[in-house]
Input
Amino acid sequence: LNENQLIAWLSSRRGVSGIGDDCYVMPGSSEDLVFTTDMLVEGVHFRRSLTPSEVGHRALARGLSDIAAMLAEPRFCLLSIAVAPWCSDAWIRRFYDGLLKLAHQSNCPLSGGDLSHASEFVADISVVGAVPRGKAALRSGAKPGDFIYVSSPLGGNAASGYRRKPRPRLDLVKKLRGQVTACMDITDGLSLDLHRLCLASGVGADLDLIPVAPRAELHHALTGGEDYELLFTSWKSLHYHRIGRIVKAEPGTLRYQGRSLQATGYDHFKGRVRPGPSD
Ligand SMILES: [Mg+2]
Output
């Protein structure tokens, strides 16, 4: 069972509705609310070599990136943590310092949560955002002929060992609203995430030029993950990095410079394909 298969299986069950995008969209009268939840597990999503404030920053950054992927603005977050035996009081305070600094900068106050303990440190965050009614960007809207864009050169985070504090692209939310047919954030590597977008839209993708971050290589950009950049499609010519076009093809099929491209990246159910944050 891999992640895509588990999500497909869940989608077919009674009692499940609206899963498979970066956030769940709850329609409202003037604006729609979007909801996302994300788990950060010691040894899986971070190692103790990260500073506590970096861990706190990451715990929220992941959820904010999903809010940005919907072209929504964050409203508030809820955080549950399980502290491990090794967590000192100072570590826990500095974890919250890192998280609350980003919460403040992002207008996303911490508004509740739960406290528990476990053998490893776990942080589970829910972020709620809002978007004008009907304007949330989904993964499923890409059409053959659309251009494919990324918000920045990719692979820098994978190449540098995942040390820096990722910046969710909330700055692009208003700029891209109404301009895109589909959007998602890139967290598991361009190839796997683009494959998911194409599956959701029932299309394929032909890539020609992939912008690679300084000091990174193409494989970092394709499969490294943890970019927290946006991947989006549009019928328009936009001033972002254009990497290819959406094509009519077997859903999820990727081609790069005329050759078939495997969708590989981080999958929790299959293990890591390329070195990543826990390596
Ligand atoms: Mg996402």
